[in-house]
Amino acid sequence: MSAPPKVFISATSDDLRSARKVVEQALIKSQCLPVEQSNFHPDWRTLEDLDRKKIEECQALIHLVGWRYGAEPDPDALPPGTPRRSYTQLEYHVGRRLQTDLGDPRFRVYVFLCPQGFPFDPEPEAEPEEKRALQIEHRRLLERSPYRYDIPADDGELEKAVLAMREEVFAIQQEQEEVRTEVRRARKSILGVLTVVLLLVLVLGGGIYAVHRYTQRGFHDIVESQKIDTAKIKTHLRESSERRLEQDLQAADLEAKSEARERLKDNAQAAHQSRIARIDEFAANFALIEGRTDATEEVKEMRRILQEEGVDAALRYIEGKRAALLARVAAADAAHVEQRRAQLQPLLQAAGLQRTKGQTAAARASYQQLLKLDPHWPQALGDYAWFLFDQSEYFRTTGPLSAAVTDAQQCLAHSQRFHDLDPTQARAQRVLSAAHNQMSDVLTQRGAKGDADENIQHCQQSLALAEALYRAAPNSEVFARDVSVSLEKLGDFLAQRGQPGDAEAALKNYQREVEICEKLLAANPDSGEAARDVSISLVKLGGFLTQRGQPGDAEAALKHCTRSLELAEKLRAANPDSAQAARDVSVSLNKLGDFLAQRGQPGDAEAALKHYTRDLEMSEKLLAANPDSAQAVRDVSVSLNKLGDFIAKRGQPGDAETALKRYTRSLELAEKLLAANPDSGQAARDVSVSLNKLGGFLAQRGQPGDAETALKHYARGLEMSDKLLAANPDSGQAVRDVSVSLNKLGDFLAQRGQPGDAEAALKHYTRSLEQREKLLVANPDSGEAALDVAISHERLGDFARDSDNPAEAEAHYRHSLDTWDRLSRANPGSAYYSRGGMVPASRLAALAETTGKGDAQVWWQRAHDILDGMVRQGMTVSPQDMGFLETLRAKVSAK
After folding, report:
1. Contact present, 793 and 783 (Cβ < 8 Å)
2. C-alpha to C-alpha distance for 706 and 659, rounded to whole angstroms
3. Geometric angle at alpha carbon 148, from 146 and 149, rounded to 5°
4. SS3 751
5. Cα separation of 324 and 330, whole Å?
6. Helix or strand run (H / E) with residue 10
7. How many H helices and E strands in the chain?
8. Tell me, what's the pLDDT at 147?
9. 77, 42 Cβ separation under 8 angstroms
10. CA dist 890 to 469, 591, 790, 849, 895, Å?
């Protein structure tokens, strides 16, 4: 009974200890023997030699790849030009060379790229940026390589993948046994012995001419009857060189003086390394002339020269023919590749048809099969990358988010391979730019630890690729539009992150996006797409300025939103039957309504209501024309909630009944969408939002039965958010949604005040803060995450104050104020961030007055200075805040 197959495990220890154990146990279940290298030699040359010997005894190598570089040989001891690699990376390269030498049937390398969300072990300490960069480059090398790799989401997927390798590993073991048997048989024969001797002569370049004549007919017989392939040649040559090394080392030991012994041993090792280095070259030459039917004349002539003139003459002859042979082989290979691709072209087109018809599983399988047959086919790589882009976007909307991330990663990997084949090809650059944008989108939605740092890199790389295409073809509408899209993505990221300088950078991106779109429209005044792009970019710029609130921002925002609506109206007039044109008008009406409702100047409320109402009317009209459209249903639901919010806040006679109708119908539509798409994460989130909206309205209205119904809606909203988080544990959006639902339910219970409500409310507020702090730890540079934490502390401060716990209330208010101060300093000139600190400052003042502890005047002064400073700087200040500012002035003057 043969010994079990051996599988070498290559992985860093600090972050993948548990994963290695999973692999070991899976191999043992598969009746395979795990092999590892635990002790490393500081000399990289000795290490590679030892590693190769150990790995050669195995049938396969499993390479687990995380984000940690790990230990390495002394970088200063590396010869010039030697790439710097960790021990784990060296093991991978040794295994890959062995796979190349022996071929897939005799050795296999399995690569597992562990993603960001993988359950890594806690690392004892962070690695230097230099090592992190080296590991990221290693991951990219693996992603770009033509070899297959897997991305296990967790230990369970990793275990399944390892268990699935069992049959392949046993087949490799059987193939190796057959090869070893054949080699042993060859060694026993005279021909086998002569083959080893002659091939060694070829590598060493002469020196055993006495053997040559004896082996003239033997070489011909071996080539014709034995057909020894490249792998066998390498095996023979390596073994011969190792035997020679052993003899030389034994001879060196006979030297009396130690210095001479060391010198002879060093020379023996150097000679051995030189022979080994030439093995690949000779084997390649042999395979080149022997394996080609179009090299017959060269083969005959080489054999003749071997017989008549010897080895050196034969080598000189074939070197002279090398260029011509390589050119002929390359041309034949290229012709063969083109012929094969022409034959496969109908299958590639069929995959495209499957994609168009929505047969995504069949299309995915077709693309994968084609790329397995031809992993370097540019057209197939590009087509599959675009397919993965679409699939990632689909899963990003419907869930699960993990599927969206995986497809985005695969899209990027295939786009990179496509691009590497020809970096100058426009299609390759464009799909790679789109792939980086998609990675940015899924990472933004996920919000896991480290995603922000990776996100900004994807945004910048996407923009750089798009800019390069635009510079090369400045009149291209497509490339100009791609640049505008990338600018918007980068602007969105910077606007949300909120680090010092981000606001200015985001504004520049938005402004340049508008400039490019305006330029396209000027060059193509009759282009509906160009006009639409201008309209959308103006809405984005207007929204940013509205949020920032610096002097002049309100006027500029109004100007941009108004022109956006005008362009959308013009497009709709030119295309009255276009659902897209009608929807664009609806979106612009919505944005302009938001601006006016927030500004609050005389007449703004009436204008905002007018825009919201017309927005709803257009959405209803689109839904009536397209009753089966999920987008149309969702647009009406969103418009109903928007109008409900405005009317409920206005509070005129009859507004409560109208708002209730809007909220109720919005929830009904959202429920309808969820029933039709039960696996859609977006549909479930929309239901949760509508439940919170309706719950909030009923809690505020306070009619008989409203409290019970509101509690029911809040509870169900939280349940749905928790369910979405369970399905997408790495989603930052899902974490934030849960925290919002917890706060809503906490607010209701704190206000209701029944027995047990206070404890439950505190529990919800506390869990909400924990969720938000988790997001902030994962994204320490995110302004939005810091803002959410500040608001949670305000809520907990209010609860502690109302629960007669002033010390705890003060601690929460101070924490909130400190966070607002940091955000304000990071975003100078932002009305939103500047105003934020006014709330906890005024509450600290009121708390000090109530308890008699602390200096209330200090906090009143602080709140006053915040609002007064905004007015002095010309920032947008609401009428309500202006009224409060007068109150603060009275408080301060009373001092």
Report:
1. no
2. 14
3. 125
4. helix
5. 10
6. strand 6-10
7. 36, 4
8. 82
9. yes
10. 61, 37, 28, 15, 9
Query: Tokens 């010994």, residue?
Result: 3
What are phi and psi for residue 677, nearest 5 degrees? -135, 70
642 vs 537, 593, 615, 638, CA distance in Å? 22, 9, 10, 6
Q: Name residue 65's beta-bridge partners.
A: 113
Amino acid letter, 382: G
**Tokens, residue 301:** 């002539």
Structure tokens at 214: 């004896």
Amino acid, res. 148: R
Q: Are 551 and 874 in contact (CB under 8 A)?
A: yes
pLDDT over 80 (residue 524):
yes
Please report the sign of the dihedral spanned by the C-alpha atoms of residue 360, residue 366, residue 372, residue 375.
negative
Strand partners, 10: 63
The SS3 call for residue 648 is: helix
As a whole number of angstroms, the distance between CA 314 and CA 478 comes to 58
CB distance 149 to 61 below 8 Å: no
pLDDT in tens, 449-506: 778 888 899 999 999 999 999 999 988 888 999 999 999 999 998 888 877 888 899 9
Ramachandran area for residue 289 (φ above 0: left; ψ -120 to 50: alpha; else beta): alpha
> Nearest Cα to 867, choosing from 895, 894, 842, 893?
842
Inter-residue contact 408 to 414 (CB < 8 Å)? no
Residue 575 in tokens: 């295309």
Instruction: Give the DSSP H/E element, type plus range, for residue 852.
Output: none
The C-alpha atoms of residue 468 and residue 479 are separated, in whole angstroms, by 9
**What does the pLDDT read at residue 676?**
85
Tell me the two tokens of residue 877: 């200040």
Tokens coding 172: 């490799």
Q: Which pair of tokens denotes residue 871?
A: 């007015």
Side chain identity, residue 403: A
